[in-house]
Amino acid sequence: MKPILRKALLVIACSSLAMADGDPLRSWRVAFVRDGNIWVCNGDGTDPKLIIEDGQSPAWSPDKSQIAFARRGNIWRAMADGSRQRPVTSQWAASDALQFSDVTISWRPSNGSITFSHAEAFRVERTTGAAAIAPDRNAAEGVISGSSIFDVRPAGTEPARATVRYDLFAKGTSFNFADQSHPAWSPSGKKLAFTRNGDIWLVEAESAPAGEPPTGWVARRVAAVARYDEPANRGSRSNRGATRLSWHPDERRLVYGYDRLQGSGFNEVHLLDTQTGKDSTLVKDALEPCVSPDGNFILYRSYGDACGPDGFCVIAASFDGKTRVKILSKATQPVW
Fold first, then answer.
1. How far is it, in rounded angstroms, from Cα 228 to Cα 40?
2. Higher-pLDDT residue of 284, 7
């Protein structure tokens, strides 16, 4: 066994014992994806159970009584044990499912609605009628592929039609953005964070006179973290941007994934102070972070030496970085 791998496994084992004594994770339930199905387990990884077949992108409701998930291009919901599965939307064809793998779902605590991202394609043309530049091999002529953010409110047993919150035609800036993804409501439901073309944006209710309801929502970019360049001489660039977002309970700090966009080989988990703009790296070789309900731990997917022969795994770490423990093997998309 390589010395580095042996050292990593030793750290994980010692952390496991330290956590077992106080058992600080066991009280929470974790949902995760394995082999295209949704499972749940205790917060320390024990007692895993398959609850939903053919599902991905799980998201707990604020009271943990339900779970939303993606299936065949649409949003579904079920009870926390996987029973009473029913579609929430039905407006997308099952053929969209391949583009749906990066969906993020977030329940809004204040009204029970569900906010989610979904791949979209927009047809464009020059008003002058001049020929467009030939598209790349992955896009149809005159089509821009992107992602939009939608809202839907589950009602009864029938699917509802989702409405657009942000898409390519969103107003509020003098620019158009094709990729709007990874929505994350804060615990109070007063703030919505999301990504726009790899940067992090924050939406808050506009202030109003005492006793009056807010007149609208104000969006601002809180972190310009995206980096992207054209490939040169057929060589790819390490284009990077923010991905999955997760709020700390203080509603000031955001944990987010910082990944190589449309590629691999670079994944980090960062911490952003949305008030000061201070940004720091928490973990390398890590993605899909999720903050624990008490704000003391994060879950994330990792790979390499930290996971040993499993290839990839889910790790729980204390927020201060002093304790890390592998809780699940061959699992993705973990959420508390």
1. 37
2. 284
Which is higher by pLDDT, 219 or 321?
Answer: 219
Checking 271-274 for CB contacts under 8 A at 24+ apart, the result is 272/200, 272/222, 272/223, 274/193, 274/202, 274/222, 274/223
Tens of pLDDT along 62-75?
999 999 999 988 99
The rounded distance, in Å, linking the Cα atoms of 44 and 29 is 9
- With a cut of 70, say whether residue 117 has pLDDT above it: yes
Q: Which residues pair with 52 in a beta bridge?
A: 38
Question: Whole-angstrom Cα distance, residue 149 to residue 134?
Answer: 28
What span, in angstroms and rounded, lies between the C-alpha atoms of 24 and 238?
Answer: 38
pTM of the model: 0.86
Q: Could you list the residue range(s) of the whole structural domain that residue 192 is in?
A: 3-123+136-335
Number of domains the chain contains = 1
CATH classification at residue 228: 2.120.10.30
